[in-house]
Each structure stands twice: as structure tokens, then as C-alpha cells.
Design brief:
The protein has 10 helices and 11 strands. By secondary structure, the protein is an alpha/beta fold. The chain has one domain (10-260): Alpha-Beta Barrel (TIM Barrel). An 8-stranded parallel sheet has the order 4-5-6-7-8-9-10-11.
Length: 278
């Protein structure tokens, strides 16, 4: 059962026992002072979930923002990710120590494999994750950008709490969603606004109009009602505020179906090293 945190954001239980705020702040492409200001303001507004990665180069800025916020560390859910070049056992342990040092924290609430790399033994990666969990360096672990075959392999070795993937009304990932639900794996939606394309969709705008909500708020609400965690990136005051205002309305079954019908199978992020064809 979900409970709530600041600004009435539900907390969802993860397999390893941690509880994750259902809405957080994505920080990809935020860095330096801009990142520090955005995270600091987000915490003032009531955000209690910040998502980062060693590859983003902004962990130090986020650590400074959290330390200066006056919000207790135990109140802020921090996710970071280990890069795909660092998935061997000792490299995972070293990468985690580096993230902890840069963030200025003793533990991560969630630590993810950022991208799969089939050339490296997943067994060694998961063994390291379980060691970090047992040591208290992380409170839960999961994966990101894993397809169903990747997850099937992972489930033979351990149990990820979540899979963080691109997911929005134009890219529903319905089959992956069903698989994760059946196997008790949470889904975290990154780019839940489709890299800015979804907010301009006329159908999403039409769904929001009777509720007095923007297309962006409708897209976030759609994902939240499906049980996903959403981590939209925002830096400006208006977007930080409006992204939080998605818990005071509900989409009807018809409105959810209209949003579902926008699916185009439109993956927008596919770097050359991705293994989405597995």
C-alpha cells in the first residue's frame, strides 16, 4: 500500500524494502550551478526524490544542494547509476564508492545498472549489487534500459527492484510493463514527456482541458495511474511546480484509453551501444 510524502506524493514499496516517491526530479543534462539551483528549489517545493548517475557528471552539485537544503538526508530518496563500462564486480564496488563520495552520503536509496552490456557477466554485476545491499551502501538495486530478455536473465540470478526505461504515451512499452508487473519489478519512466514532444500533442491537450491541466500534467498523470514512477527533468520554477500538481485529479478510463491510443512505438533515445534488439 502506498503512503504519502511531501506534497502528497505517494511512496511505493520496492522489492528490497525501500519506498520510492512516485514522482522525482530527473537531472540528465543538468550540471554545475544550474543543477544545484534546480535541485535546491525542487527540495524547497516538496520534491523528495532526485535521480542522477555517475555518467551525468552532476553528483557533486546534487550533494551540495541536498546538504544545503535543510532537508534531512533520510527524507530524500537518491538514485544513482553505474555506467556500463563499470559492470565487473570490483568496478561496481568502486563506482558506488565514487558516487557516495561525490554525493556526500553514506548510502544510496537506489543504485541502478545504467545500461546493459552483454559482454560482461551479469552474475558479477548482481553479486556486487547484493554485496552493496548487505553492507548498507545501497538500500535497493535495479536496472535501467533492460529489455524483457535482459530481465529474464537477471531474474535467474537475483531480483532487481526496478527497471528504469523511456516510457510515455507515444512509447507505452506495454509488453515490458506487463512483464514487470507479473514479476514484481517496478517501472520508472524517464523522459515521461517524450523529450518535450508529448506536451504539444493535441489529443493530450484535449484530455487535460476539462481538468484544467496541461498536456505535460496529463502525461505524468497517465503514467502515475499505471503505477509507474516518473522522473521528469525540470529546472525552471514553473515546470518544477506544475510537475508536482498531478495528484489532485484523476483520468477516467476513457481518458486513459485515449492516451493509450497515441502509442507509436516511438523510441526517442537509442545510442549506438544500446541492446534494445535483445
Amino acid at each position: 500500500m502506498a503512503v504519502t510524502t511531501a506534497r502528497h506524493v505517494p511512496l511505493l514499496p520496492l522489492y528490497h524494502g525501500a519506498r520510492i516517491p512516485q514522482l522525482g526530479l530527473g537531472t540528465w543534462e543538468l550540471d554545475g550551478r544550474d543543477c544545484e539551483r534546480a535541485v535546491g528549489r525542487a527540495l524547497e517545493l516538496g520534491y523528495r526524490h532526485v535521480d542522477t548517475a555517475e555518467a551525468y557528471g552532476n553528483e557533486e552539485a546534487i550533494g551540495r544542494a541536498v546538504a544545503a537544503s535543510g532537508v534531512g538526508r533520510e527524507e530524500v530518496f537518491i538514485t544513482s547509476k553505474v555506467w556500463r563500462d563499470h559492470l565487473r564486480h570490483e568496478d561496481v564496488l568502486s563506482a558506488c564508492r565514487g558516487s557516495l563520495r561525490r554525493l556526500g552520503t553514506r548510502y544510496l536509496d537506489l543504485y541502478l545498472v545504467h545500461w546493459p552490456d552483454s559482454s560482461i557477466s551479469l552474475q558479477s554485476t548482481i553479486t556486487a549489487m547484493d554485496e552493496l545491499l548487505a553492507a548498507g551502501s545501497i538500500r535497493a538495486w535495479g536496472v535501467s534500459n533492460f529489455t524483457i530478455p535482459h530481465l529474464e536473465e537477471a531474474l535467474e540470478l537475483g531480483r532487481p527492484s526496478v527497471d528504469q526505461v523511456e516510457l510515455h504515451p507515444r512509447f507505452r512499452q506495454e509488453e515490458l510493463d506487463r512483464f514487470c508487473f507479473r514479476n514484481g519489478i517496478g517501472l520508472i519512466a524517464y523522459s515521461p514527456l517524450g523529450h518535450g514532444n508529448v506536451p504539444g500533442d493535441p489529443e493530450i491537450e484535449a484530455i487535460g482541458r476539462p481538468h484544467g491541466k496541461s498536456a505535460a500534467q496529463v502525461a505524468l498523470r497517465w503514467s502515475i495511474q499505471k503505477g509507474h514512477v516518473v522522473i521528469p527533468k525540470a529546472s525552471g520554477e514553473e515546470h518544477l511546480e506544475s510537475n508536482l500538481e498531478v495528484f489532485d485529479f484523476e483520468l477516467s478510463e476513457d481518458e486513459m484509453a485515449r492516451a493509450d491510443a497515441l502509442d507509436r512505438g516511438e523510441r526517442l533515445l537509442e545510442p549506438g551501444f544500446a541492446e534494445f534488439d535483445r
